[in-house]
Specification:
By secondary structure, the chain is of the alpha+beta class. It has helices at 81-102, 107-115, 122-133, and strands spanning 6-11, 16-23, 27-43, 46-55, 65-69, 73-78, 138-139.
Amino acid sequence: MTNPNIKIVKLSSGESVIGIITTDDFSINIESPLKMDLVTHMTPRGIAESLNLTRWMQPFSEQKSFEVDMAQVVTIAVASVGLSQYYKYVLRKVDDIDKLSEENVSYEEVRHRIEATDEPNDDEVFDELLDELDISDTIH
């Protein structure tokens, strides 16, 4: 089951952000926000789009929660079950990398530890999302 507070926010800047959202009349609070970017690339089966989730403000701030004026919000939507799972997966990976970097572990060691986990890789998670949506990742 998905967390109904995991939502997608489309901002007037054009950015789309996913996070744990609470609202009031004048602002929204976004906890653990990740910026959403669609990337188009060529595959052996043709053109495909992939969803990249990256930290939104955290590279520039230690905060985990951000307040946004409601005037900057175009729309808010509850994330699908598949997208919510992918969001949680990416957050775990980001947290793992942050913890390891705090320990002054080398890049190679970070990569080795992440690859050694039993969790599915990004391609497997993406394939699960496509299966859930019952669509192909190829655009004709």
